[in-house]
Design brief:
single chain, alpha/beta, 8-stranded parallel sheet, binds 2-(acetylamino)-2-deoxy-D-mannose
């Protein structure tokens, strides 16, 4: 049986930084509470959008703690613990368990060209180390690790793995996950293709743009489930006009600038990401704000 409590819309939370480049846990708590109020189903914490690979291990823990403290008990929390080191991923996973997270997720170990046997061992080592369901994070464009449907099937056929977050435009693969493993969860990863994901069987979505426009994706899903496809398409269209503007300046930097304009002091993304210019922010907000 599919675990219904994990279905729906999950913002992949951003990490705000203060003027001294420290994590701003206060603002992180604020964007968490803001999204709980909008009716999101849960959060994906400490992933790519959170700049996980630009944070120290202590900072990644700080992020997990801050969101846990601010989220309350009505939403599901998925902790991203992926690292290129198995031992480090296990340390984060154990801490997520202690903090009361509902599930863990991990990107495949990257940079070194690990064999599939090694990648498989990494996932099973993490899954065996903590008593929490594991969500595979499939993001070939960023990780450089391409896993086949058969590879991912080796995880989905095991009870410890709850599903896959599929950040890829291979919607044939997404449909195959659902067809072969109907009891497992499939999350859409590219927000701009959410409707395509729903059509191919996604149970929900994890996305970075949900930090500030979760309501659009809650709406798209609701309209899709009511079979009001034209209306759903219109909302996806607005979201995509926004995403196009974000892509032009850098997605995370752009999302932070939008949240700044909405009153959340996000700070810039961490170097080597470059800060946006005043001109870029102005142009971005001129496109985005009227569509919110
Ligand atoms: O998790 C996100 N990926 C990253 C998924 O940010 C790296 C997406 O939400 C994209 O940011 C978004 C824009 O391309 O779809």
């Amino acid at each position: 049986m599919i675990d219904e409590k994990f279905q729906g819309i999950f913002p992949a939370l951003l990490t705000p930084f203060d003027q001294n480049d420290r994590i701003n846990t206060k603002v992180l708590g604020e964007i968490t509470a803001y999204n709980v109020k909008k009716g999101v189903d849960g959060f994906y914490v400490g992933g790519s959008t959170a700049e996980a690979f630009l944070l120290t291990e202590a900072e990644r823990l700080q992020v997990l703690e801050a969101v846990r403290n601010a989220s309350g008990d009505s939403v599901r929390l998925i902790a991203h613990v992926g690292c290129i080191s198995t031992a480090q991923a296990i340390r984060l996973a154990k801490r997520a368990r202690e903090l009361g997270y509902d599930a863990i997720s991990a990107v495949a170990p990257f940079y070194y060209k690990f064999s599939f046997a090694e990648i498989k061992q990494y996932y099973f080592d993490i899954a065996s180390a903590v008593d929490l369901p594991v969500l595979i994070y499939n993001f070939p464009a960023f990780s450089g690790v391409s896993l086949t449907v058969e590879n991912i099937g080796e995880f989905l056929s095991d009870d410890r793995f709850m599903g896959v977050k599929h950040t890829s435009s291979d919607y044939f693969a997404m449909q195959q996950f659902k067809a072969l493993y109907p009891d497992k969860l499939v999350y859409n990863g590219y927000d701009e293709m959410f409707m395509a994901g729903l059509a191919m069987g996604a149970d929900g979505a994890i996305g970075s743009t949900f930090n500030f426009m979760a309501e659009k994706f809650i709406r798209i899903r609701q309209l899709f489930l009511e079979n009001k496809l034209d209306e759903a398409k219109a909302v996806q269209q607005d979201a995509n006009t926004i995403i196009r503007a974000l892509c032009k300046v850098g997605v995370m930097q752009g999302e932070k600038a939008v949240l700044d304009a909405l009153g959340f002091d996000m700070g810039p993304a961490r170097a080597p990401f470059a800060p946006l210019t005043a001109e870029q922010k102005k142009e971005l907000c001129a496109t985005v704000l009227p569509l919110l």
